[in-house]
Request: fold
Amino acid sequence: MGIRQWTDGLRDGTRPASALVAVPVALIAVVTVVGIDVPPDVHLGPFLAAAPALTASFAGPRLTASVGLLAVLAQVIVAVNRSGLTDPNHMFQIGALVLISVIVTIFAGLRERNAAEMVQLRTVAEAAQRSVLRPLPVRSGPLRLASVYLAAEAGAQVGGDLYAAARTARGTRLIIGDVRGKGLDAVSGAAGVLGAFRALARQEEHLPDLAARLETSVAAHRIDSLNENDDWSTAQRIAEDFVTAAVLDIPDAAHELRLVSCGHPPPLLLREGRAHVLGAAEPGPPLGVGTLAGTRPTEDVFAFRPGDTLLLYTDGVTEARDLSGCFYPLAERAASWQGVEPGQLLELVCADLLRYAGGRLGDDAAVVAVERLPDAG
Reply:
């Protein structure tokens, strides 16, 4: 059973909560039996308060209230069998137990409501991710593709990392990128870049022209995001937003790929047991900065042969650290995982990355694997 299934089961009162409730019930039974026979100067009643408090940690308000009522009845039984209900000590113990049970029941209700809201928000976030960050096609011409998105925060499924593929008349175009910042601003920026790429990928014949149009689109999106009611810090943050990206064109007829690097980590080419870094000769600035820098995107051409695999990634992968603070050695690890199809490669990368980082990443991460299949015939 997964962590989410376990916690959901505790909230809705299914088997895990039913099993755990045996602990406070057993505590009540023991305190009741022992409390009747102990000497008059020994009072075990305060231990009964632990029962509803413990129940509130894993169950909802109804079960918590039921255990609280059971604890109060147990205290009444102890009082009747000892000095009677009129004993001030027992009266105060019963009153305190009732008060504690009511308080923890209220907190259990609040926790359950907050948990339900979190589930709803998670569902909305996952729906938003599916609409903004669509899964890549398994096949695109002579290419086989796979993609994965790893969220740094538990339950967060949307961030500024992005990827997309577009099929053109002559091949396949790809983009992978990372929007500066986090939260809704990053999501909005990613949606803007992906929308522009999908609209422009088939319109521009040359890859540098496509990158230039994306630069214009990011700059326009940044201006549109400004509001006259924004305070200075918000306006400055929006004005400083940028997107690192790698834009690629992989033609069907030629065993090559064309790359425009906009401040993004260089792709890895896996070939014959080695991982080759495809560093751009003149990498450009991130999208949103190029207009200020006055530069025009330039492209690099690399061989991409049948059997080669291309690994695209965001810096959440290479900047993941182990306990000693060392960065994740993606190129070194990926070189030993050749000969597997893209989906299996990404499974290996993700499992090894999470294990290396101790199960939690410091930043969102996206990875795309592209394999060039043997020529038909």
In short: Residues 1-15, 234-239 have pLDDT under 50 and may be disordered. The radius of gyration is 30 Å.
